[in-house]
Amino acid sequence: MSTAVGARPPRDEKRARLLAVGPLPARILIISDAWKPQVNGVVRTLETISEALRALGHTVDVIGPDRFRTLPCPTYPDIRLSLFPRRRLNRLIETFTPDALHIATEGPLGLAARAWAKKRGCAFTTAFHTRFPEYVQARTGLPTGPFYAFLRWFHGAGQGMMVATESLRDELAGRGFQHIRAWSRGVDLARFAPAPAEPWDFPRPIFAYVGRVAIEKNIRAFLDLDLPGSKVVVGGGPQLAGLKRAYPAVHFTGPRYGGELSRAYAGADVFVFPSLTDTFGLVILEALACGTPVAAYDVTGPKDILRGPVGAVDTDLRRAALRALDADRTACRALAERYSWSACAETFLSHLVPLGGH
Description:
By secondary structure, this protein is of the alpha/beta class.
């Protein structure tokens, strides 16, 4: 049932239309520069929807840097960049013979996959997962304008760019991006739950951050707050050693996984999300699923998710953190229950386009 590589649009227009909304078993290929063993929101999203799509009967493969020679990303060695991947990637794509191609990231693999599709006249979709212009600016001080021009060029070649929130959609439309498609996220409600909770042996209330410890996460904004009780940071990353030295009163646990991670969320009185640049914030849903209120800046991601008595968003992060202490933990869990990975996978499927035509 696969469309031949480089073929013209299929003559069977009914089949092409059906594939676009996903009821037929299809061969779906995802290309991503972010993949295991990396631990981040992009990897969790792609891994989870791949499993959900397979459960629906589709054949799914994710091609990541683990199949190529790599080198460490400058300033972030935990991320590996594929080295001259084009020839090998072309063979992998053509061997898989996809019905639909999704390019998840704008790195070396994403660029090589885009070039493959353009050369052969094949249609594909993309996603805007990460604010790379702001990440580069945070590390180098370079302006964001040229990087957004590159991203418009990259995504403009596809037939649809998926984004996670309404506010991000509006922002990117204002920057000249086109063919934007809404694609929300989900949370594993069995894995993340209000009990059991970590009995933190620190003065209450417990204000916790969970996630990568990296400059783009703006963690210092949280650590500098004058708050009662204790601050806890759960996670690893390039800033961990430096922040531990700079903030000796903060409790740094390092990375946690599985049940230990859920207990860490559930044991906090407030989850503080200080990022100004995330496009969604899966950790927000994870905290809510554990019944933990969320405090955040009034920016894309938090302001799209945090509706009702489940925390607080504010231009003043300290004010948000203190207000979140009064949130309803039952309402937090109830809001998380509205976000399903199966619905996320089905939306993703509905946005795909047949490889041979638009």
